[in-house]
Give the backbone structure.
Amino acid sequence: MEASSTSQPEFDYLFKLLLIGDSGVGKSTLLLSFTSDTFEELNPTIGVDFKVKHVNIGGKKLKLAIWDTAGQERFRTLTSSYYRGAQGIIMVYDVTRRDTFTDLSDVWAKEIDLYSTNQDCIKMLVGNKVDKESERVVSKKEGIDFAREYGCLFIECSAKTRVNVEQCFEELVLKILETPSLVAEGSSGVKKNIFKQNPPQSGAATSGCCSW
């Protein structure tokens, strides 16, 4: 009996989330703010950074593997593989820099189309740095319109003051939990990680969505 109690999984689902957007928009500070409750001015990410956060959302124990990609052009080729298998993609722009907003449609939305392997993947648009309201050049309405056009969730936040930082990730994850195919993937990920002794079964991936 005791042996079986120790093999209880530490989480119900494992989800892979990806942060994308131009360099300097605050992807790394957003991630740090969410995972460690602190704010730091960080140097640009080289290649990719990775953090894990355990959260309880929607009554489920979740393990979030959050990938923070480099925004600079010269690292772009490295990041294409990181889109693979992501259940959630967060597109970040800086409300005080118009170019970071225009690049969403010119660069980042195209990358998602090219590299995302997940048809049902949930996308979220995040306007960061609302603490610099006096320097704002991208209106909230523009963000809402973009999100509507591309079928994304939308939120504005500040990694510095932590306004809406948790809500950003929570809303994304709740939407993933409402999507049966993504829940199935998240639960099959758990099986692969935790029950390593069991050979993967073709039907295993569907077991997570029997309650839908």
Q: What stands out?
A: Confidence is low (pLDDT under 50) at residues 1-6, 190-212. The CA atoms of residues 66 and 161 lie 21 Å apart. The chain is about 35% helix and 20% strand.
